[in-house]
């Protein structure tokens, strides 16, 4: 009788474990159909729906600054914005490699460069966006060593990674069951969203935090990856446009080693045959009405910048 009891307990445990494992896979599959702002671009990437002629890469200063719609009309190309907020070049490069696994290579790349983009983050920023894809080895290798990286159990027990993300888990389950109309779709167009915000207090906070200016570290491994990326593009005949997007002029003196970034880009031009377009002295930089903080253009500014950028690239091509 005792043996029969333990057999029932084991059977119940196995059934429960299998059910939870299956439920986790259902959530993953449902989120891979999601069109919300977190997952839409990732899902386009993994489902091989991008296949762009021109890729826009970089941080939020790519994601919120460069409009594929304007570039499509200006250059008569199919552009897509894969800018990734809060992440530095190492994750941008990882995303590019993931893109190539599922989509055809682009003919052109606009790569936004930032002075802080050559350091490494200490944490996993906006980690929920990665939840359905954490089996990707490129992703795992890139976030390894970051605070908040996915542990063994999260990587191997699908439902466990959603323990603090119940809302997202329910969305995945409902999408899997065919009820995706209950959830919002992204406001982005081909990865881009213009932000119609008023000027905020971010710049004042920055000045208080760094009254004597800020000097950003250039990580050797990230610089090596940048060189590897440009060398790959050169071999594959992918033309790269390095772009330093506009920033509000009053913030620029606070960057104590900006010249290091400018020199890095000029050396890249000489070594890899790419172009460098520096907008840090552009007229947009001197008018606050085009920004919502010192680093980010609002929608009006972003689309003026996109139009000018498209015209400059059109001349170069």
Short descriptors:
317 residues, alpha/beta, Rossmann fold, five-stranded parallel β-sheet, 12 helices, 45% helix
What does the secondary structure layout of this molecule look like, with pairings?
Elements: H1 2-31, H2 40-46, E1 54-57, H3 60-63, H4 68-75, E2 79-81, H5 89-102, E3 108-112, H6 137-143, H7 152-156, H8 166-176, H9 202-209, H10 220-235, E4 239-244, H11 258-272, E5 275-278, H12 299-316
Helix pairs in contact: 1-8, 4-12, 5-6
- Rg over CA atoms: 22 Å
Shape: globular
Q: Provide the helix percentage.
A: 40-55%
Mean pLDDT: 92
Order of the strands making up the biggest sheet: 2-1-3-4-5
The CATH superfamily bears the name: SGNH hydrolase
Q: Please report the total strand number as a whole number.
A: 5
Q: Which quaternary structure do these chains form? A: single chain
Brief sketch in words of this structure:
The protein contains twelve helices and five strands.
